[in-house]
């Protein structure tokens, strides 16, 4: 039986080799071209590139707007992580427990996770428009005109609006939790019930610690996703006002779409984000690998028994310095 499985594995690998080669060439060339471009001063035409060494990276690390964009990425990630580990976890437990009104929870939290983020951000930004946004119109209809605000054009409100949007997009973490809850050991929960433990006690002291690997997956996934949430900010606030909601994606986008020899500078910013993404992915692999190894040892001692599954526009001074 094992020989048959090994033979089938070799056949499957043979069919997958062309796909692996294609991806290796595609991503390998893309990474090489991006890194090579980051050391040049060149326009969008990629003609007449001039080697500038580490200048683009030095200018990036000296630019306060870029550093502010990174801080915003981290702050937005922290907000979404905090909501996912609390509200998202509670909602997943309630759904797994068969609470009534499950369709409402799915419509509110899970449907947006399956909808293109660009559409969600566009609708969200439209709702918060000052003149004809749904929120201000509702406030005016209730006679609360004084509460109507410039949600997307005042720095404080704009930042809070983007934080709220990031916090709302927790449908994927809820699905992570829901999948892993179905694999929990029911004997432990039954023993806790027989001992007289209440629902909140079981959730806090039993279920929550048992899902440590899922918590790690959620944290690292949201941290990594914050650096890919370009549409969330671009289609809601555009990074404004005055760079208040600027993230690395919108920062890079402004240089790519601006005139002049800024493509090398934007490529350097992309390389730094890529390095961060690789570090986060490596951290996830290191943190989850020991967990999987322990599970295999407990279930079969490495003798072949299956292990339980684990579900897992830029500032003008900077632009001038680039073009020098």
Report on the architecture of this protein.
With 324 residues, the chain is mainly α. Helix content is 71%, strand content 1%. The longest helix has 38 residues, at 263-300. The radius of gyration is 24 Å and the shape is globular. Residues 297-315 have low confidence and may be disordered.
Task: Please specify the SSE layout and strand pairing.
Elements lengths: L1 H36 L2 E2 L8 E2 L3 H8 L1 H33 L5 H13 L2 H11 L6 H8 L13 H14 L2 H11 L4 H9 L4 H12 L1 H15 L3 H5 L13 H9 L6 H38 L15 H8 L1
Antiparallel strand pairs: 1-2
Helix pairs in contact: 2-14, 3-7, 3-8, 3-11, 4-8, 8-11, 11-14, 13-14
**Beta-strand percentage range:** under 5%
How many strand segments?
2
Major beta sheet, specifics? 2 strands, antiparallel
- What is the alpha-carbon Rg in Å? 24 Å
- The structure class reads mainly alpha
Shape: globular
Kindly report the average pLDDT value. 82
């Amino acid at each position: 039986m094992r020989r048959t499985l090994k033979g089938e594995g070799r056949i499957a690998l043979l069919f997958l080799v062309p796909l692996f080669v294609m991806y290796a060439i595609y991503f390998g060339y893309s990474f090489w071209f991006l890194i090579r471009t980051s050391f040049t001063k060149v326009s969008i035409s990629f003609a007449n590139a001039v080697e500038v060494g580490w200048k683009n990276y030095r200018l990036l690390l000296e630019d306060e707007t870029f550093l502010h964009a990174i801080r915003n990425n981290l702050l937005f990630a922290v907000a979404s992580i905090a909501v996912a580990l609390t509200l998202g976890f509670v909602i997943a437990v309630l759904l797994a427990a068969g609470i009534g009104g499950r369709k409402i929870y799915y419509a509110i939290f899970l449907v947006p996770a399956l909808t293109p983020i660009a559409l969600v951000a566009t609708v969200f930004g439209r709702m918060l428009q000052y003149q004809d946004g749904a929120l201000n119109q509702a406030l005016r209809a209730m006679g609360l005109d004084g509460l109507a605000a410039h949600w997307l054009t005042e720095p404080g409100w704009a930042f809070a609006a983007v934080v709220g949007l990031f916090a709302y997009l927790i449908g994927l973490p809820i699905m992570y939790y829901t999948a892993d809850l179905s694999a929990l050991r029911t004997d432990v929960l039954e023993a806790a019930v027989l001992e007289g433990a209440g629902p909140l006690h079981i959730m806090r002291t039993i279920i929550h610690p048992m899902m440590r690997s899922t918590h790690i997956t959620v944290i690292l996934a949201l941290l990594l996703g914050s650096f890919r949430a370009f549409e969330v900010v671009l289609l809601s606030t555009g990074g404004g006002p005055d760079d208040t909601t600027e993230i690395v994606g919108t920062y890079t986008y402004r240089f790519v779409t601006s005139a002049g020899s800024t493509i090398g500078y934007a490529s350097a910013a992309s390389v730094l984000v890529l390095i961060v993404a690789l570090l986060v992915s490596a951290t996830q692999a290191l943190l989850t690998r020991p967990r999987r190894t322990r599970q295999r040892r407990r279930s079969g001692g490495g003798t072949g028994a299956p292990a339980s599954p684990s579900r897992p526009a830029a500032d003008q001074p900077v632009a001038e310095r680039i073009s020098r």
